[in-house]
Amino acid sequence: MKIKRFFASDIRQAMRMVKDELGADAVIMSNRSVDGGVEIVAARDFDEQLIHNKLQKDAAERKAQNPEVKQPPLQDFAAENKSAQIISSTRKKGADGSVPPRPLRRDFDEYLGYAEKMQINRPRRLQPDPVKKPAPAVSAKIEEIPNEPAPAIQEKTVMSARAEEPVPVARENSANDQLIKDMFQELKSLKMTMNSRLSEIGWRQNSQSNPVRVELLHRLVDMGIAKNLSMKVAGRLNNYQTIEPAFKKAQEMLVNVLPVYNDTLLDYGGIAALVGPTGVGKTTTIAKLAARFILKHGPRQVALITTDNYRIAAHDQLNTYGRILDVPVRVAADAEQLRNLIDGFADKRLILIDTAGMSQRDQRLAEQIQTLQHDDLRIRPYLVMSAATQYKAMKEIIQAFQIFQPEAGILTKLDEAATKGAAISALIEQRMPLSYVTDGQQVPEDLHAASAKQLIEQCAAESDQESDYNAILDYDDWVAQGYA
């Protein structure tokens, strides 16, 4: 039998080292956390009966070398010593009546390892022996001793002796409790290891039985599609025998579930307010919408309003666009001014409102809502989002700005996003309809009506250029991405 210790930064790496070194038939004898990682003791050609016999032999030898020291009962101890005063002095001097020795601390090394733990029984909590009152005869002898201590001193000394007796028992109980906690911790760690191993076996079996599904997941991952959405799509295409038809069908499913809003803002006009986080391109998008409307209806039909009073020189960019497009630009400090400005632009067919950019966690969002809410004015909010935003942050943005009840979303900066899959996944899962997309800084050329088919095709084309579909992903790669 070959036994070896392995050290690694995590349990998975340690298990792999055991498998490479001792083979698939190796037996895990123990595992525990150490500084810098974990330690695993494993054996090959494990003989359980041999270990059992060896442990019994070692235990017998230790018992013969260290015979158990029996603690004398309290009444014998009192009989041998003539008084409480003698008891106190002999404790200090170490005479025959010395304090019974503390029980030997158990060697914790014998509990380490799987093979040694087979000998462990749960220790029974020890209770201190009840203190018995001395017999009358002994009391009479103590009274005959000269220089009798005062009753208060004698009582204090006896109580002190009684209080000291349970100390060794309490310490041993504490050590046993800690040992039990350590054992439960090791069992928990072993359970996690076994679950991980079983999960790996199940994943590999599924990969062999349905390779098309694994390859489809691979491609959806490269597109940047979120895990939950990828798993749902792949789970509905288990009947396909080849990857290309399955991948084409997956794209069709994504096109069908990506909500698109057939917006009429640029055809008939209205009052629209663009809301969203800082830096997503709200002001530039307003300029693009205004320019597109001007090309169709003329500059006299458009007016711009900003409510951004938080940033220094926040109005400069919008004023610049206003001069270029030859449209009026006004600033509204509060809800009343906004209403007055809208009433003053009653002859305009399109009024675009630029708002202050705020984080989805900003408490001032409620102030913006109060500014834009008017019962007799139909202000249509549009949520502006950047395609370069990560999936989790995109979900938070959509959820936070739902308080504005946006009519649709506008996805900006498609040209800056490494992959559009994260934004597409968030829009699908949060059911946010998409009205426009932008893919550059040119006004108004880089503004387009949203098309689900074009977005999915662009996303798939980007993954084709950057990914190697022939690469085989290891189980650890799938675990790292949360798929296994």
Automatic annotation (TrEMBL):
Subcellular localization: Cell membrane
Residues annotated as domain AAA+ ATPase: 268-438
Principal location: membrane
Domain of life from the UniProt record: Bacteria
Gene Ontology molecular function terms on file: GTP binding; GTPase activity; signal recognition particle binding
Biological processes per GO annotation: bacterial-type flagellum organization; protein transport; SRP-dependent cotranslational protein targeting to membrane
Gene Ontology terms: cellular component: plasma membrane
Residue span of region Disordered: 58-78
Domain SRP54-type proteins GTP-binding: 269-461
Pfam families: SRP54
Recorded topology in the membrane: Peripheral membrane protein
Gene3D superfamilies tied to this protein: Flagellar FlhF biosynthesis protein, N domain, P-loop containing nucleotide triphosphate hydrolases
SMART domains, per the entry: AAA, SRP54
Alphabetical UniProt keywords: Bacterial flagellum biogenesis, Bacterial flagellum protein export, Cell membrane, Cell projection, Cilium, Flagellum, GTP-binding, Membrane, Nucleotide-binding, Protein transport, Transport
Similarity section: Belongs to the GTP-binding SRP family.
Role, per record: Necessary for flagellar biosynthesis. May be involved in translocation of the flagellum.
Protein name: Flagellar biosynthesis protein FlhF
Taxonomic source organism: Methylotuvimicrobium buryatense
Gene of this entry: flhF
